[in-house]
Amino acid sequence: MTVTIKEVISKSDLKKFVKFNNNLYKDCKYHVPDLIDGEVDTLSRDKNPAFEHCDSIYYLAYKDNKIVGRIAGIVNHKANEIWNQQYARFGFVDFIDDNEVVDALFDAVEKWAAEKRMNAIHGPLGFTDFDHEGMLVEGFDLVGTMATTYTYPYYPEHLERLGYKKDADWNEFHIQIPKEIPERHARISEIVLKKYGLKILKFKNAKEVRPYARKIFELLNESFAPLYGYSSLTAKQIDYYVDMYIPLLRLELVPVVIREADDEIVGVGICLPNLSLALKKAKGHMFPFGWIHLLRALYGKSEVVDLYLAGVLPEYQSKGVNALLFYDLIPVFNKIGYKYAESNIELESNQKVQSQWKYFDTKHVRTRRAFIKHL
Fold this sequence. Notes:
Elements: E1 4-7, H1 11-24, H2 36-43, E2 54-63, E3 66-76, H3 77-83, E4 87-95, H4 99-115, E5 120-123, E6 135-138, H5 154-161, E7 165-176, H6 183-195, E8 198-201, H7 206-224, H8 235-245, E9 256-259, E10 265-273, H9 276-282, H10 290-299, E11 304-312, H11 321-336, E12 340-342, E13 346-347, H12 351-354, E14 362-374
Parallel strand pairs: 4-5, 11-12
Antiparallel strand pairs: 1-2, 2-3, 3-4, 5-14, 6-14, 7-12, 7-13, 7-14, 8-9, 9-10, 10-11
Helix pairs in contact: 1-2, 6-11, 7-8, 9-10
């Protein structure tokens, strides 16, 4: 039967677009469902401030009157200006294992990109680095994390069949948490604290976080600037993410390194208890009972912690500030009972961040890829 491609116009269709991912993977034990309302907000022009500098279009594929695929086309004009390119992005992409379906979806989004006068399309990418990015190409037999998305092994096979090539890879690691702070990290940390006049700040409640929240994201803007496809967050985007993430934080897992002289932030680590099982139990819904599973996961017992975000000001990189984060976190991890950490995605080309794992018992467990096709 012929595949029909329909543009998502109504809010009802947008919910269908979001729900398709959870429906496709409902029997997959490795998939971690996204919260439906959160995804709808991300894709809504009246909710997500990224639309101040992004265009987008969403398509659903139908076959036998059933939804069998979805794809988003995105143009981040700010990123294109920063990186001096005319690229569209594809993202939020899912499909059944069917050549006709995949061909129709990518044909639609490629034609849209060409109409926007783009000369290439790459992805999977979202509006910002805080959306899911990369397609799984290695590590299909592991449960994902909240920060990533699971995809079936046939996905990259279809991309390659359509002429897409590797543009960038991200690696993910399992890191065994040592019982004690490694001697090297302890020694470096004590030196760095004194040499640069730094201290480690910890928050006791959300009220204490607020004065530093915007500064944390401004630091991330600076530290992430050289990374693949990154465009700095605007003030409105920072406010959007502050409101989104503060309720999720377990504050003992968020060390902030500041200069004592002026209280300026030079480094931050943001960790979260692994929420994968809780999100699976919630099945995409915060209400009526999904929030209970998430709350239990945030403050209950777990063997896994996610290293969600870390950033260091460029002028302090390679000066031992990263060691300070572990200096603070390792005793906290052991007190809570974590056995290992998920690194989440790290660019294969980012040797600075990957070199820090050589002092730990570490295993490379997943690889995700951004593909590109010139139009």
